[in-house]
Amino acid sequence: MWEYTSKVQEHFLNPKNVGVIEDADAIGEVGSLSCGDALRLFLKIDDQERIVDAKFQTFGCASAIASSSVLTELIKGMTLDEASKVTNKEIAEALGGLPKEKMHCSVMGQEALEDAIRKYRGLEAAPAPEGEIVCKCFGVTDVQIIRAVKENKLTTLEEVTNFTKAGGGCEECHGRIEEIINEVLTGESSKPAPEPEKPAKLTNIKRFQLVTKVIDEEIRPALNKDGGDIELIDIDGHEVIVSLRGACVGCPSSGRTLKDFVERRLRETVEPEINVQEG
Questions:
Q1: Can you tell me the distance from the alpha carbon of 215 to that of 232, in angstroms, rounded to the nearest whole number?
Q2: Which strand (E) or helix (H) includes residue 55?
Q3: Measured between alpha carbons, how far is 28 from 176 in angstroms, rounded to an integer?
Q4: Cα(277)–Cα(223) distance, rounded to whole angstroms?
Q5: 3-class SS at 34?
Q6: Active-site positions?
Q7: Run of H or E residues at 45
Q8: pLDDT-based confidence at 191, cuts 50/70/90?
Q9: Which residues contact 147 (CB under 8 A, 6 or more apart)?
Q10: Whole-Å CA distances, 28 to 33, 162, 169, 181
Q11: Quick one: DSSP state of residue 251?
């Protein structure tokens, strides 16, 4: 049994705005019966592009019904510009949270709303998903996965599946999904970040303190999220010797992790001359 909040139960047992708007100004559709979830969202819009009514029809689980119900309540009274900024996280938060395995239901609501707004503004058909199809079972592209990872700060394959369904079928795409996650996380870790104040030339003690601090507070927690770990073995001048642990041991990407993540972060926050080696 999923652990549902009282809000989810309320909107599932007594959903708001179920039905059809016969003279709807816009209809958004997402999902399909073959995937197990489908949603049709009806909008009535006035001359100022304000949503005066919203109704829905859905085929899905309790979370899909509750997400659709609370979405219609959220957007009533909003302008289309305001509604276009509603995110899946706001839908889930309005329900007091959703089980992680059901977060894709809130994503479905966001996508149906985006589809309705697109159609109202002249795009009769939603554009085909951009990018490379990664999950053939559910038709999820790398662009959709990247968006989900960035917007929701996802770090694991399981989280991506919960939000997008990608990887929830034959599992053939698991390796590619994990590559995409690593690419996004590596890219974000390389963005310029405020550097701590440090002297022009560090003493050996100060260098050791800073390296230890960055490893303990930034690098280790990031690796722990994927079951990995790191141990500081020794520091000899600018040579930092570490040992990867846990899931990082034997990982094909371990070399890239050391150079593109560990070494890069230490160079950014401690000294640009640092060289990381595995010992």
A1: 8
A2: strand 51-59
A3: 30
A4: 17
A5: helix
A6: 35, 105
A7: strand 37-45
A8: low
A9: none
A10: 16, 22, 26, 29
A11: -
Which helix (H) or strand (E) is 205 found in, with range? helix 204-214
Q: Which two tokens stand for residue 184?
A: 């996004």
From the list 170, 149, 68, the residue with the least C-alpha distance to 116 is 68
Can you read off the two tokens belonging to residue 158?
Answer: 């399981």
Q: How is residue 157 written in tokens?
A: 């394959």
Q: Which residues contact 128 (CB under 8 A, 6 or more apart)?
A: none
Q: Determine the Cα–Cα distance for residues 224 and 156; give it in Å rounded to an integer.
A: 11
Q: In the structure encoding, which two tokens stand for residue 219, read together? A: 């690098």
Going by pLDDT thresholds of 50, 70 and 90, the confidence category of residue 123 is low
Under a CB-based contact definition with an 8 Å cutoff, are residues 233 and 242 in contact? yes
Residue 68, token pair as written in the block: 């659709």
Q: Which two tokens stand for residue 65?
A: 């019904």
Angle at CA of residue 249, ends 244 and 254, nearest 5°:
75
Q: Tell me which residue has tokens 């100060």.
A: 206
d(CA 104, CA 67) in angstroms, rounded, equals 10
Spatial distance between the Cα atoms of 224 and 247, rounded to a whole number of angstroms: 9
Asked whether the beta carbons of 99 and 105 are under 8 A apart, the reply is no
The dihedral formed by the CA atoms of 265, 269, 271 and 275, expressed in degrees to the nearest 10: -20
Model pLDDT, residue 82: 95
Q: Give yes or no for a contact between 167 and 157, defined as CB atoms under 8 angstroms apart.
A: yes
Region of residue 131 (phi > 0: left; psi between -120 and 50: alpha; otherwise: beta): left
- Taking only the tens place, the pLDDT of each residue in 152-164 is 889 999 998 888 8
Q: How far apart are CA 240 and CA 235, in angstroms?
A: 5
